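task queued by scheduler; priority normal; single chain, no ligands, no partner chains; default sampling; output format set to structure tokens
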Amino acid sequence: MENRKIAQFFAEIADILDIQGENPFRIRSYRNAARQIEDLTDNLAALAAAGGDLTRLSGIGTSIADKIKEIAATGHLQFLDELKKKLPPGLPELLRIEGLGPKKVKLFYDRLAIDTLDQLEAAARAHKLRDLPGMGEKSEEKLLHAIENFRPGAGRYRLDVGFTYAESIAGYLKEVPGLQALVPAGSLRRRRETIGDLDILAICREGAPLMDAFVKYDDAEEVIAHGTTKSSLRLTGGLQVDVRVLEEKSFGAALLYFTGSQDHNIALRKLAQAKGLKVSEYGVFSSSGEETMLAGKTEEECYRVLGLAWIPPELRENRGEIEAAARGKLPDLVDLKDIRGDLQMHTTATDGKNSIAEMAAAAKKLGYEYIALTDHSQAVKVAGGLNEKELARHLKEIDRVREAVDGIAILRGVEVDILADGSLDLKDEILRECDVVVASVHYRFNLPEKEMTKRIVTALKNKYVNILGHPTGRLLLEREPYQVKIEEVIRAAVSEGVTLEINAHPSRLDLNDVHARMAHEMGAQLAINTDAHADSQLALMKYGVFTARRAWLEKKDLINTRPLQELRRMLAARR
């Protein structure tokens, strides 16, 4: 059983307790447990089955550990089953609608018996919500807009979800006798921020029981198809997974075809036709006279026959990559190994789960040269944000720890809130003491575009700001970006010498690939940061690197690929 599936139990408990109006601290403990479990690298089910001590893991106490053991052993949790009996099953889903909290969900259910998304949308369109307490015409309109934004995301999954399932299924199938190759394809291989399904391609020796093994995968909820060359499952979380067995001579062509994108494949077919060739999932063929197979075993040979260099999967979106490959001008994309440090993370000083020393030790284990500790400022009360005096004490504690830690530089920093008028949440006197200041928007997301843009641009003019954190404020499949003229923000960042962040947490990936490429082309500096709130989350850096690669970024385009002394000069340049 995957960690994400275990995390879903605790997230669902938190949702139900939230609707029931339970103690906020109790709700938060389950919510935090869900997030922590989802980000763990250890497989909890395997650890529980082996009798391991789950409480040694950050954020997992005795009560949560006991529940994990029950889930791992039985696939169920009696406590959650009892909670579900007290609530209509559709209510927790309504909490996924932006701006809709537990009190409103309960209100709609109590007054109008609304317990599904369809019922909620119908009631809003019939103007039945506006007269309820705390509602109004504008609230009803905003809710309809939020539902419209939510529906396209329904049935899609974050990249990390697809990644986790792909690794689990691959690990399971690699034990099948006769398996020779196994590669996930589709949007997962292109590292898109969300995926709709999962395609896995395989080569097997004749008679290998791959398909029989696949349909017995323990997280399968439904066997959609079970054939000799293709089988499909629907997993318990709803994700559809297709496995295809291919001939070795056509594997590269099939991998190219099923990786996509559709636009990339169409462009390749047009290029092939212009050269008198034919491209399909079976290979590249001459189309004049009798068909002759010219390539198919590897992607490299398929591209070569078309007169192209091999194109990294992340670039295959028909955004100029084919023309660049024809000219030999593809970028040398940044790699995870190029990252020298992480410039946004949080500790127990605010809402992080690990101490300064623990975060430093985890980063050192990753081979980093430096990190910046950027706990929250006072406006983020839910995170226990720091005021000037508290931050001053925290900076001294960072000094104390870094004197005791060898092999990694610990930069003093803060994530300071950008207030509604564009001023910062802390005074310049304390910001001056920080090596790294990340400025971010954490509230008042509903400002009009002009006001939000002015708010952020004003903040960037403060000479102590080094990095603009998660610049559009989105949460994938949960919250839309706030309204902002991103080009104007990028221009201001370039003018002021402020670095723009690619936030690597898979719920954010903000800037996204399109905006990050735009920022680079406009001359902006960029950094990939994890925004880690636990030492295990430092490993999320790879998702930010995926986004940077999709944005055509090279090692030289990111400030946290630079050596420490060069980075220090860049950070100090504005002051």
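post-processing summary
- The longest helix spans residues 3-19.
- The radius of gyration is 25 Å.
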